[in-house]
Amino acid sequence: MPRDLFGRDPKDEAQLTASPESQNSGAMGQDWHNDFTIDRGDEGFGFGPSRNAQGDDKALSDLHPYVQTLSLSDVDSCVALENATFPEHERCSREKFIYRLTTCPELSLGLFSTTTPDGPTAALPTYAHSRPPDSASPTKKSTLVAQVIATKCASTTVTDESMEYPSDWRDRVSLSERQGHQEHGRTIAVHSLAALPEFKGRGLGKIVMRSYMQRMESSGIADRIVLLAHDHLIGKS
What we know:
This protein is of the alpha+beta class. Helices cover 22% and strands 23% of the residues. It has one domain: 3-Layer(aba) Sandwich (Aminopeptidase). Strands 2-1-7-6-5-4-3 form a seven-stranded mixed beta sheet, sandwiched between helices.
């Protein structure tokens, strides 16, 4: 039976801190992937077939992670995280990131950690693209450690068309064709769910995905969330 991952888990909530903004005022698609659906049913949103990631409760106190909507200004961090997480033939291209973060940034979410140059994230591949969280903390950097990147589509599964983008998207007023993001669609197609391998086992992917589903459920902009996964990963997330 699908389980409701939109319900707040006290353990996860305790590990998330407010973003600096609130404190101061925030490549897939091959045939050998399986389609997961997070659907709105009688019991709310559920995720199946899968189980919760077995994150280690110890280990997030040094990161103080917080979630924040991604924007085009985060594209370098997103590319660095993608390259560190996936083999080359599965990575989302930089141009696709630019398209998705320009066309529908509200559908993408990042998990960040704010640290000093000698902190736990300073050696990460995304640190070089980090920015100060606010003007009052110039020595600190807000570093991307996990992300969810998505678009909307009209179908109930992730299609080849939804994985692509119109080649002339920068010059067009209307983006209503089948390729790429479809604003009228009621399905959120997740194209990248990634967490830095340096923090494997800490449950970062679980945290960012649960936060993402909670936000999408609250917004009411879609009826379901779908994503792709390798056969051997089913039941391990």
